Every structure is written in structure tokens, then in C-alpha cells.
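Need a sequence for this fold. Nothing fancy.
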């Protein structure tokens, strides 16, 4: 008995000692420094990335992250999503959820993750997949930890290092280690490093290491430049590589494009003889190359439809032209290559082009060649004194129109002599026009009826191009969402595209709007300008750090005539506005004559990059535009006789 008691005492003492010596929970939210909580909705506590190049066809990437979610605004950063496919195998995926004190709530096994296709719902072939998990936690803060391993069967590209995935994420500690054999050469592109990289060479190879600690979140600043101009990031590209069993080497865009042309495009432009004959007949007696290009482009638009297809060499290689011809569909790669093949059948040379598509106008890095800087394919067709660009996935886009999806950015052309960096078509503000004329009649109850006609050019063509293929009620419902007019009734509507010459869309409407103006004691209060949703006024920013970047400029011009009731006269008309500065100009005038109120409005916004201290002027400019746009005029009913 005494022995048993002694053992219990010894065990109890050991437990006490263990409890005293136990380390603190690693993810206690209270341990986050105050400096990292400012502007942060989440904090990366730990981030470890390792890339190990064992051979040209064997690369292992290991990743571990723990991120503390501080509030509901950071909840999206708790989602875990790991992408994989046949060329990158996913291994050892696991995770855990911790409470605010850093105590374990739940361990995550691979079986807890949902495995779904990573291709859109219209995809025909589904090779890319994603393991996904969304925590269900009803309190804050909490921490999500996860880790995994990807085994690449190629060395064509490597995961980059970007410790701060969003501006409202702070980082306690992030490291990236890249190891390779002595004879494996790489090229680096480093952005805004907080500390120089560490490089070690041994008999076994080369080790490159980067680290970042105590990175605070950043205050959101509207109209900031592209993120890679101020965030920390490292991109690594190989010199020699293997991809899907094909070896290659590149140190610049010319060499990359040559490899891509020879291995991705070569021999995939053959067409059935009947199609070649049809194209020959289609362009017969067509006098100019431009008209031939137009006819062939419209032929492909009518014949084919877009569908996502992830096949070929790692999803990079387009379907063969003859397959697209037979099936009548393809993805951006396939339809671009098919159009290129049809043009070749007519004796017109065109170049398959990689582009990073999206509204933010992300360009290829001219001095750093690497795979997957693009996400889309378009076609470049040189002609005398000019270049024609074709968006081959659209069934309604005009020839040589680059909307906000692909406009004015550096892209990569595949040519038989190698890659060439070029720039897509851009539109100065004066060419991105919205010109509107309207004539309305007001009655004594404030109801409005009349007609308006609006012309859209340049990037403002995008304002209505999504309506071109819509019909009936669906189209009219979408139009009502565009115009901020209460009780809008559309009696007639048409949208006509002029694709020849300068592309433009012309919208014509006949409308009614009961209660457009408010009546009060023989007074009629009417909005001066209610035909475009008010220009967004960004928040005020004190001590701004980033330059002001306006990605696209535009020009709006309106002339609106209000026929007022015969018994009403103006009581109050807003004064004319005339503002002009480095960002553009805004001019309005409202006059009354012979029972008609005529309102004119002109707004020019310039694109460009401006000094941070200019933001206050820009903010004030937009605020004044908003104020003037929301003014009202007042009519008073005159006594009888």
C-alpha cells in the first residue's frame, strides 16, 4: 500500500512538473503583437514553403501554414484549397482547428476535405481538381493550420513565394527554401524583399532561402497600383526543364516562345480539304486583307462555341484545328488556333498570343520569362501599317476590339522564330465614349416619358455588349438594372452593333417613369441627371502611401431636354459647374427657354499614375461630380390667368 501511495505521489509530482514545464499553446491569439493587429482581419502565424528539385521530372513542394482569423471579415482566409492534377500529385494533406487560446478543437484528415473538379461547370474534360475545406467556427478569433505535399512530374514552373496574400493579412513568420542539384540552373525575379536572400552552395547542390517576419497588414487605399509593385514576392523559373516528357530550355521570351511554338502549335493547324475550299470561296474577290480577316472571323463566330477544355500538354496545348472544325467548339486555345488555321488557309499569317486577361490589366514581365504569366489566348494579325486583334471566344465581339478583359497590356506572341512581347490595343479616354441624347416630357404629376439614344465606343462598348445576345424579358430586366430610374417602363428597346470601322453600340429606348419627379404644394422636384448610376466616390485616405492609379479613362457626354408642363416655371435651377484639373474635367449647364429645360453634361476622366499626395484632389473631384449629378431642379405651378 505504501508503495502504491509513493508511486501516486511520484506520478502526481511528475504531472505537476510537466504542467509547469509545458510550452504555451503555439497559436494563442493573445500572443499576436498589437502592431500586427492594426488593419488586419487575419494573421499568418507560420508559413513554411519548400521546393526541392530532385530531377527534371521530379520536384517536391511542401507547404505548411497556420493563420489566425481575427473577425468575420477575415473568414474567407480560413478556407483551405489545394489544387492538383495528373502532373502534380497531392500527398499528406492534413490540418487542424484551434480556438482563441490556441487549444486544439479538431484535427483534419484527408477524408475531411471535399474533392471537386477545378474546371467550370461548362467544361467537357475535367482533369484539374481541388481538395477543399471550409471551417465551421462560430467564434473569433480561431486558427486554421494545414499542410500538404505536391509532387510534380515536371520542372517547367515552380510555386512562387508571396507571404502576404492580401492587404488585410499580417504575417508573423514566413520562409521559403528552394533546393536543387548543383547542375540545375534557375532565374529569379524578386519583388520588394524585406531582407536579402540567403544562398548556400554545397556538394549536394544549391539552397536559396527567403524569410519575412512581422509584416503588418496594409491599410486599403482605393486606386492603388498593381499589388506586385509594393508586396513581397519571389518568382523562380528554370533554365532547362522537362514538361510532360518534353525537354526544353529558355532564358528569355524569344526562347520560351520558340519552344512553345515548336511543341504546342506545330502541326496542329491542318484543316479538312472541304473547309479549306469553303474559306477560299468565302474570301474570293474580297479586295483587302482586312475584309478577308473580318469574313473569316465572323465565320468562326457563327460556327463555333466556347467551352473549357483542359487537355493536351498540361492543359497548354490547343486541340487540333481539324477537331475543332468537326466538333464546333473549343476553349480559348482551341478557337484561337482554329482561327489562325483558317486565316492561314486564306494566305494570312496570324500569331497565337498568350495574355493575362482581367480588368486589372496585368502585363507580362518583359525581363523575366516564365510559364503561366498568362491565363487566356487571343490572336494577333499583322496587316500593313497596323495590327488586328481577335478575341476568338466571343460570338458577338467586333473584329479588332479589345475590351477591358484584354486591352492595353503586354502579351506574348508565338512565332516560328520565337516569342515576341507586344502590347494589345488600348483606348485613350476620348475614344472610350458614351454619348447620350434624350428628350423627355414631364406632366404635372411628375411622370416622365420620352426617348433616349446612347452610343458606346472604346472600352465603354463593354457597358452593353453583354446584352447583344439576350432577348425578350431577360434583356429588358437587365436594362432596368442598369438605369437607376424608379418605376421604369420600357415601351421600345433596340441595341444595334456597328462592327465595321470603329466598333460602336447604339442603344435606343422609349420609356415611361411614373413618379420620376416629386410633387409638393404646386411644386415639382425633378432629378437633373438620373440616367447613369452615380460615379463611385472612394473613401477618404489620410497619409496615403501608394500612388493614385487610374487604369482606364473615359468620356461621357449627355444632352437631356425636359419639356415641362405649360403651367410650370422654374423656381430653382442648379448653377453651372466647371471643374478642371490633372484628372480631367466636369462641365454642366442647365438652361430654360420656351418651355424646355436643356441639361448638358461632360465628364472626362484621364488614365495614368499620380503622386500619393494628389489623392485628396482626386477624391474632391469625384465628390463634386457626385454632388452635381444628384442635384434637382424645382418647378412651380403658376396661378391660372
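Here you go.
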Amino acid at each position: 500500500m505504501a508503495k502504491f501511495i509513493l508511486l501516486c505521489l511520484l506520478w502526481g509530482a511528475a504531472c505537476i512538473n510537466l504542467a509547469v514545464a509545458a510550452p504555451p499553446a503555439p497559436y494563442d491569439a493573445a500572443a499576436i503583437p498589437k502592431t500586427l493587429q492594426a488593419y488586419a482581419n487575419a494573421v499568418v502565424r507560420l508559413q513554411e514553403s519548400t521546393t526541392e528539385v530532385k530531377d527534371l521530372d521530379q520536384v517536391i513542394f511542401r507547404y505548411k501554414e497556420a493563420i489566425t482569423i481575427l473577425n468575420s471579415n477575415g473568414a474567407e482566409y480560413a478556407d483551405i484549397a489545394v489544387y492538383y492534377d495528373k502532373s502534380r500529385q497531392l500527398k499528406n494533406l492534413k490540418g487542424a482547428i484551434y480556438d482563441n487560446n490556441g487549444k486544439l478543437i479538431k484535427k483534419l484528415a484527408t477524408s475531411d476535405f471535399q474533392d471537386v473538379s477545378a474546371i467550370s461547370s461548362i467544361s467537357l474534360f475535367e482533369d484539374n481538381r481541388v481538395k477543399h475545406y471550409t471551417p465551421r467556427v462560430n467564434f473569433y478569433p480561431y486558427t486554421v493550420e494545414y499542410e500538404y505535399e505536391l509532387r510534380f512530374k515536371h520542372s517547367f514552373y515552380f510555386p512562387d513565394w508571396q507571404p502576404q496574400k492580401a492587404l488585410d493579412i499580417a504575417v508573423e513568420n514566413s520562409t521559403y527554401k528552394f533546393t536543387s542539384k548543383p547542375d540545375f540552373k534557375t532565374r529569379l525575379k524578386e519583388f520588394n524583399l524585406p531582407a536579402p536572400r540567403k544562398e548556400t552552395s554545397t556538394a549536394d547542390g544549391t539552397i536559396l532561402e527567403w524569410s519575412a517576419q512581422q509584416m503588418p497588414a496594409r491599410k486599403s487605399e482605393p486606386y492603388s497600383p498593381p499589388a506586385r509593385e509594393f508586396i513581397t514576392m519571389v518568382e523562380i523559373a528554370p533554365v532547362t526543364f522537362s514538361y510532360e516528357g518534353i525537354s526544353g530550355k529558355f532564358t528569355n521570351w524569344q526562347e520560351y516562345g520558340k519552344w512553345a511554338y515548336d511543341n504546342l502549335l506545330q502541326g496542329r493547324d491542318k484543316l479538312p480539304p472541304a473547309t479549306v475550299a469553303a474559306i477560299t470561296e468565302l474570301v474570293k474577290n474580297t479586295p483587302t486583307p482586312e475584309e478577308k480577316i473580318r469574313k473569316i472571323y465572323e465565320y468562326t463566330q457563327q460556327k463555333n462555341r466556347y467551352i473549357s477544355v483542359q487537355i493536351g500538354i498540361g492543359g497548354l496545348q490547343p486541340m487540333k484545328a481539324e477537331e475543332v472544325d468537326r466538333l464546333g467548339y473549343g476553349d480559348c486555345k482551341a478557337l484561337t488556333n482554329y482561327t489562325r488555321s483558317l486565316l492561314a488557309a486564306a494566305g494570312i499569317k496570324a500569331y497565337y498570343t498568350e495574355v493575362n486577361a482581367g480588368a486589372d490589366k496585368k502585363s507580362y514581365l518583359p525581363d523575366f520569362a516564365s510559364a503561366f504569366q498568362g491565363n487566356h489566348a487571343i490572336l494577333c494579325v499583322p496587316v500593313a501599317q497596323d495590327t488586328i486583334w481577335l478575341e476568338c471566344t466571343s460570338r458577338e465581339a467586333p473584329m479588332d476590339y479589345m475590351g477591358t478583359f484584354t486591352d492595353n497590356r503586354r502579351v506574348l506572341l508565338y512565332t516560328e522564330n520565337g516569342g515576341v512581347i507586344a502590347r494589345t490595343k488600348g483606348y485613350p479616354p476620348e475614344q472610350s465614349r458614351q454619348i447620350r441624347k434624350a428628350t423627355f416630357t414631364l406632366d404635372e404629376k411628375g411622370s416622365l416619358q420620352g426617348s433616349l439614344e446612347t452610343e458606346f465606343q472604346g472600352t465603354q462598348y463593354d457597358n452593353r455588349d453583354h446584352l447583344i445576345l439576350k432577348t425578350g424579358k431577360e434583356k429588358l430586366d437587365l436594362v432596368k438594372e442598369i438605369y437607376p430610374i424608379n418605376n421604369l417602363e420600357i415601351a421600345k428597346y433596340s441595341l444595334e452593333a456597328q462592327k465595321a470601322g470603329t466598333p460602336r453600340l447604339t442603344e435606343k429606348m422609349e420609356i415611361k417613369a411614373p413618379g420620376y419627379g416629386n410633387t409638393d404644394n404646386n411644386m415639382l422636384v425633378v432629378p437633373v441627371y438620373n440616367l447613369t448610376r452615380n460615379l463611385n466616390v472612394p473613401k477618404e485616405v489620410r497619409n496615403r502611401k501608394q500612388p493614385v492609379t487610374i487604369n482606364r479613362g473615359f468620356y461621357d457626354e449627355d444632352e437631356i431636354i425636359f419639356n415641362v408642363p405649360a403651367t410650370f416655371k422654374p423656381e430653382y435651377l442648379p448653377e453651372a459647374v466647371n471643374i478642371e484639373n490633372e484628372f480631367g474635367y466636369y462641365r454642366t449647364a442647365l438652361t430654360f427657354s420656351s418651355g424646355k429645360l436643356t441639361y448638358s453634361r461632360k465628364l472626362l476622366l484621364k488614365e495614368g499614375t499620380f503622386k500619393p499626395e494628389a489623392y485628396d484632389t482626386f477624391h474632391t473631384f469625384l465628390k463634386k461630380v457626385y454632388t452635381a449629378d444628384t442635384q434637382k431642379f424645382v418647378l412651380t405651378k403658376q396661378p391660372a390667368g
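For context: The first strand starts at residue 42 and ends at 55.
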